[in-house]
Write a structure and sequence with these properties.
mainly beta; Neuraminidase; 1 helix
């Protein structure tokens, strides 16, 4: 980013919809405060975590202008020493990493080189970009770096926030926020690159998969819905005066043959009930449990002041259709004068949910913290 359940009960409203609505509202997430723990040991930021096929937790994050990773073999109680994935270069930081374990068990990291001004000026030879890098030994070493896309050199015409999935066919789809094509406006779309060889080569031109004219679709996080043959991704959508989460979807058969516009059925407002327009709710992150429920996080100013830089993590729960997410308790107790930003979710093999936040609430600076929770029936 830069910077409920909606009742449609018409004449034919099916009983099934009522049942799904009741099921979601009968469940919540219970966060175990005894599991609150710092991830790693340094002032890092913007963490994303997965559980590997060997059971280890694997976390990527921003650190000192670069991208690092750490591994835990005891489900987050302790962490190995960090490994550098991408170092900063002169005038360029490496930012907002994401991680995916592929079907062949190699790891694919994506990240976002971001130039910054040096002595008050932009270096026109350095560009905002989307890159990937691979590991074949569970993150101990990294190779096969690929430059997938370059936007312009300046902050107003950049590209941002890559995130990737792998389809049953083996094709990898990498989504990112792109304003590099809008040099005369403040617009932004969600674009897509594809790889059919495990991230060693990529399509040459970005496909625009989501765009609201005169607005800024941003921060895509994709999943494949279990048993639905459907790709969905969350975005921050500023259709109103402030960002709110929306869900964009296509069947695997549709496969992004056309751009999802503002009024298409493939775009839906994520939360129920709708938040007041004055509330900021950006940077959404989407995951699905093995039991089918989908869970969405976002950073929000709801019940706080109106400064998005002091937003904190909120979480909402839905059924297997990833629609009409209903709020559940907040994972982290963040004072109003602190922040909990750039949040993420990780679902473990036993459906434990790990919530991640970058916060200055528990230490001397901004650090990555985690907490575990489970979906339970409301009492």
């Amino acid at each position: 980013m830069r910077q409920i359940f909606i009742w449609l009960m018409g004449v034919f409203a099916p009983v099934m919809v009522l049942g799904q609505h009741y099921a979601v509202n009968s469940k919540t997430i219970a966060w175990d405060q005894t599991t609150l723990k710092q991830v790693g040991s340094r002032n890092d930021n913007y963490a994303r975590m997965i559980q590997l096929s060997n059971g280890n937790l694997f976390c990527v994050y921003e650190s000192a202008g670069g991208v690092e990773c750490i591994t835990s073999s005891d489900l987050g109680k302790s962490w190995d020493q960090p490994v550098v994935i991408a170092k900063p270069t002169a005038g360029v930081n490496m930012a907002v990493p994401e991680i995916l374990e592929l079907k062949d068990h190699s790891l694919l990291a994506s990240y976002n080189p971001r130039p910054h001004k040096v002595n008050g000026s932009w270096d026109t030879t350095k560009h905002f970009a989307i890159c990937t890098k691979k590991s074949y030994d569970k993150g101990k070493t990294w190779a096969d770096e690929r430059l997938i896309y370059e936007a312009r050199y300046n902050f107003d015409d950049g590209c941002w926030e890559p995130s990737q999935i792998q389809l049953p066919s083996g094709e990898i789809q990498l989504f990112f926020s792109n304003e590099g094509v809008y040099t005369k406006s403040n617009e932004q779309n969600i674009s897509l690159f594809r790889s059919k060889d495990n991230g060693l080569s990529w399509t040459k031109q970005p496909e625009i998969v989501s765009f609201r004219p005169n607005h800024r679709d941003g921060m895509p996080v994709p999943i494949i819905l279990k048993g639905k043959n459907e790709i969905v991704f969350s975005i921050e959508d500023n259709a109103g005066t402030s960002f709110k989460p929306s869900i964009i979807r296509n069947s695997i058969g549709q496969n992004w043959q056309k751009t999802v516009g503002p009024d298409d059925a493939e775009r839906t407002y994520a939360l129920t009930p709708k938040l007041p327009d004055t509330v900021y709710a950006g940077a959404p992150y989407l995951r699905q449990l093995h039991s089918g429920e989908t869970v969405l996080s976002y950073q929000s100013t709801q019940n706080r002041n109106h400064n998005w830089e002091q937003a904190c993590m909120q979480v909402a729960l839905s059924d297997s259709n990833a629609k009409d997410f209903v709020s559940v308790p907040t994972p982290f107790d963040i004072p109003l004068n602190k922040h909990g930003l750039w949040n993420a979710l990780c679902v473990l093999n036993d459906d434990t949910i790990i919530a991640l936040t970058s916060t200055n609430a528990f230490g001397k600076g901004t650090e990555i913290w985690m907490i575990k929770g489970r979906v339970v029936k409301k009492k």
